[in-house]
Amino acid sequence: MRLDKFLKVSRLIKRRTLAKEVCDGGGVEVNRRPAKAGTEVKPGDVITLKLGNRWQTIEILATPENIPADRAKEIYRVLAEGRDDTGNA
């Protein structure tokens, strides 16, 4: 499955076009390598997603074509998350 589609199906990013922009802008790594929207992902891959000053690292558990919104969190597991605060106001 394409990375941008996984991010949309998992509801980590709400729209596929936004997922593509984030990926192509360098905000996503797959298995510690920078990834573009078309990167193929599979169960077991680890994604680090950076949005603004927030980041989240997840492991893919499944790659269904579609899943109900209330079950979206079942296809990944959060490994770590945090904020990159610089201390500047």
UniProtKB/TrEMBL annotation:
Record family assignment: Belongs to the RqcP family.
InterPro entries reported in the protein's UniProt record: RqcP, S4_RNA-bd, S4_RNA-bd_sf
KW Protein biosynthesis (keyword) present: yes
Name assigned to this protein: RQC P-site tRNA stabilizing factor
Keywords: Protein biosynthesis, RNA-binding, rRNA-binding, Stress response, tRNA-binding
Biological role stated in the UniProt entry: Key component of the ribosome quality control system (RQC), a ribosome-associated complex that mediates the extraction of incompletely synthesized nascent chains from stalled ribosomes and their subsequent degradation. RqcH recruits Ala-charged tRNA, and with RqcP directs the elongation of stalled nascent chains on 50S ribosomal subunits, leading to non-templated C-terminal alanine extensions (Ala tail). The Ala tail promotes nascent chain degradation. RqcP is associated with the translocation-like movement of the peptidyl-tRNA from the A-site into the P-site.
GO molecular function terms attached to this record: ribosomal large subunit binding; rRNA binding; tRNA binding
PROSITE patterns (alphabetical): S4
Species of origin: Neomoorella humiferrea
Domain called RNA-binding S4: residue spans: 1-68
Signal peptide, first to last residue: none
Gene Ontology BP, a term: rescue of stalled ribosome
Top-rank lineage group of the source organism: Bacteria
Assembly behavior: Associates with stalled 50S ribosomal subunits. Binds to RqcH, 23S rRNA and the P-site tRNA. Does not require RqcH for association with 50S subunits.
Organism classification: Bacteria, Bacillati, Bacillota, Clostridia, Neomoorellales
